[in-house]
Amino acid sequence: LSMPESIEHYTIVLDKAKAYHKGLKDNTIPRQHSYSLTYANKGVKEAEKNLALAIKLWATDNEYNNLISK
Fold first, then answer.
1. pLDDT (tens digit per residue) in 38-56
2. Is 5 exposed, middle or buried (0-12, 13-18, 19+ CB in 10 A)?
3. Contact 11/51 with Cβ under 8 angstroms?
4. Residue 17: closest CA among 44, 53, 35
5. Which residues 6+ apart lie within 8 Å of 70 measured at CB?
6. At CA 69, angle to CA 40 and CA 21, rounded to 5?
7. 53 with 6: CB under 8 angstroms?
8. pTM, 2 dp
9. HEC profile for the chain?
């Protein structure tokens, strides 16, 4: 979170976390154990939180509007 590039980084992290969570949820990715889905959901929430903080810290007005509209 200490650099402006963290917005791009956490956008990628969030996309990967959402894809992994979706794969576990629809059983295209096999679950390693019974808490896999819970941990994946936690990962999505944490990535969303980190992205929101990075946006608050580093986004310009145009970037902020573009990211919020997604």
1. 999 999 999 999 998 988 8
2. exposed
3. yes
4. 44
5. none
6. 10
7. no
8. 0.83
9. CCCCCHHHHHHHHHHHHHHHHHHHHCCCCCCCCCCHHHHHHHHHHHHHHHHHHHHHHHCCHHHHHHHHHC
By the 8 A CB rule, do 54 and 5 touch? no
| Cβ neighbour number for residue 15 with a 10 Å cutoff | 11
Q: How far apart are CA 38 and CA 51, in angstroms?
A: 20
Please name the residue that has the structure tokens 């996309």. 15
Check pLDDT > 90 for residue 33. Answer: yes
Q: Which residue has the tokens 């019974």?
A: 34
Helix axes 6-25, 61-69, angle to 10 degrees: 10
